């Protein structure tokens, strides 16, 4: 039985604790993953560190003592040092760092994809420093461009075919209007949920501003960074933001995917508990999903979101789901209580955000 199926069979906190005590089947740690990269390279600590543009002590500490990179750029430097493919670097960013993967709509990421591909082809001069220099040079050039209807997947395919710096410059010029570094779907998706909460607050006599929603101060800061600079919150912060906005399990998975990250992972100990908590909440309080769906239908213009909400609302009305009599204060509060019961060391960061 896979881990997701095992979570679905859990009925109590005790069941989940028993599952967590099983040492098998959990995600590989960064230390184990990094050790594999280092061993496969066949390089010494000094030489591998030089390829990454990092210190020997940092590389040695990750290998022997644990710890992990503290920034998205450092993970990308490791990708260059290990001569990884762009998709492998994206997977590493999401799985171990909680960051969004490489995105062709971000000019810096586009330069990294190009340089990683050249490096894989044996041109070792294309390291992280070269990607940064290329980005700064090309960004300074005029980017007239125009809007494109290409999806991110198709855009990545176009970028993957780029094999010279001149072709990369042409790519950035052609799609200049789209290469803003912003994750437009993510921003729009969050704005729809914020609009729903603002309208609800206004109906209750509030001002209807984001500030009036009573969200933690860090959320406003993260939203500002996303809107102004295209900086996507890290995985834990984004997860906490979704929970504060009362997202269900399915909605939270959509949020993470729009950020270029994996859905909640059953093989991650903390996220296993989140999946359990949100599944239990959906069983006892189906009105949460129904309320979100009907509220979003009133504000969204996205065809996919409208279709998903319509189908969910139809399913819930036809099935006649019944909720427990006790109201839920919020999804974030419910998840916080479950995590506190579990007493997981891995939950400390998320609890601080809830």
Mean pLDDT: 85
In terms of structural class, how would the helical and strand content be classed? mainly alpha
- Tally of contiguous helical segments: 20
Q: Helix coverage percent of residues?
A: 55-70%
Radius of gyration equals: 22 Å
Runs with pLDDT <50, length 5+? 142-147
The total beta strand count reads: 0
Q: How can the largest sheet be summarized?
A: none
Please state the overall shape, judged from the principal axes of the Cα atoms: globular
Strand content: under 5%
* Helix-strand string: HHHHHHHHHHHHHHHHHHHH
Distance between the termini: 32 Å
Polypeptide structure, described:
The radius of gyration is 22 Å and the shape is globular. Helix 1 (3-9) crosses helix 16 and helix 6 (72-81) packs across helix 7. With 354 residues, it is mostly helical. The protein has helices spanning 3-9, 13-20, 30-41, 45-52, 56-64, 72-81, 86-97, 107-120, 128-140, 152-160, 165-174, 184-203, 217-229, 235-244, 249-258, 269-284, 287-297, 303-319, 331-342, 348-353. The chain is 64% helix and 0% strand.
């Amino acid at each position: 039985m896979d881990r997701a199926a095992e979570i679905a069979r859990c009925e109590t906190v005790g069941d989940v604790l028993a599952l967590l005590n099983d040492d098998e089947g959990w995600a590989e740690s960064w230390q184990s993953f990094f050790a594999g990269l280092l061993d496969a390279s066949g390089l010494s600590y000094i030489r591998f560190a030089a390829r990454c543009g990092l210190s020997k002590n940092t590389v040695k500490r990750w290998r022997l003592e644990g710890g992990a990179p503290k920034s998205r750029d450092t993970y990308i430097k490791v990708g260059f040092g290990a001569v990884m493919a762009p998709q492998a670097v994206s997977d590493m960013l999401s799985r171990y760092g909680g960051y969004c993967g490489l995105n062709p709509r971000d000019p810096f990421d586009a330069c990294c994809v190009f340089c990683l591909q050249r490096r894989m082809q044996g041109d070792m001069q294309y390291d992280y420093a070269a990607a940064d220099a290329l980005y700064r040079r090309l960004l300074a050039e005029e980017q007239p461009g125009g809007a494109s209807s290409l999806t991110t997947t198709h855009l990545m395919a176009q970028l993957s075919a780029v094999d010279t710096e001149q072709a990369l410059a042409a790519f950035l010029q052609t799609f200049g209007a789209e290469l803003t570094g912003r994750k437009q779907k993510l921003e729009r998706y969050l704005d729809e949920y914020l609009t729903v909460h603002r309208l609800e607050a206004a109906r209750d006599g509030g001002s209807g501003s984001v500030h009036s929603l009573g969200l933690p101060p860090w959320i406003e800061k993260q939203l500002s960074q996303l809107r102004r600079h295209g900086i996507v919150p890290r995985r834990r912060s984004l997860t906490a933001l979704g929970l504060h906005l009362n997202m269900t399990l399915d909605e939270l998975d959509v949020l993470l995917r729009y950020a270029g990250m994996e859905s909640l992972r059953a093989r991650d100990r903390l996220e296993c508990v989140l999946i359990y908590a949100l599944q239990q909440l959906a069983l006892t309080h189906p009105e949460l999903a129904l309320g979100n769906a009907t509220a979003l239908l009133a504000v969204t213009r996205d065809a996919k979101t409208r279709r998903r909400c319509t189908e969910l609302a139809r399913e819930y009305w036809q099935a006649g789901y019944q909720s427990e009599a006790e109201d839920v204060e919020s999804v974030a509060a419910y998840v916080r209580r479950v995590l506190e019961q579990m007493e997981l060391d891995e939950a400390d960061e998320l609890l601080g955000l809830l």
